[in-house]
Amino acid sequence: MAAQLQAQRESVRFLGLLDAIAPQLIRELTPAPDDDVQFFADYFAESNAALDLAHLRQLAPQAQLDYVVEQGRRLGIFPADVAVEHTRRLVQIYRHNMAAAVQYHPPLLHTDFTLFAASERRAEDPVLPADHGWQACTTGSIDVVAVPGQHHTMVNTPHVAELALRLKRGLTTVIDMVPA
Hints:
By secondary structure, the chain is mainly alpha-helical. The protein contains 7 helices and 3 strands, in the order H-E-H-H-H-H-H-E-E-H. The model has no long low-confidence stretch (mean pLDDT 88).
């Protein structure tokens, strides 16, 4: 969106990223999971929970999803009323997002970025540069704002309140800079 606005000679006053990794780093560091089992294992690990992977691999795809949703509800990772079909759609969205990220080559932007970076990382997560690779995508600066939580949990209670506060501060600063 920022590239499209700049192509139309519009100014981009605020570009905020929520713990996003630049596409070139995604291609280098985080290949898409080989299968749904690994995706679910990684997702649960972000909540400090584990799945019985040996058991999960023995199940048919639909049974895998049923098991994951049941365990996610039991452990409080998923809402109690989450539907299996909703979870299936989220997995499909994840696959499409990863494919798009791997194929995307962003143009060089001429604006500052604000990266809201999750402050908690698991030991097995790849080591990332502080800017998550975004400096290569802009002639501007990267303001890295640490927010509590991990990649998936920073947008959930209780962490989302702090994220909202910091996002509001960033937007307020930009609004205050607009001439009257």
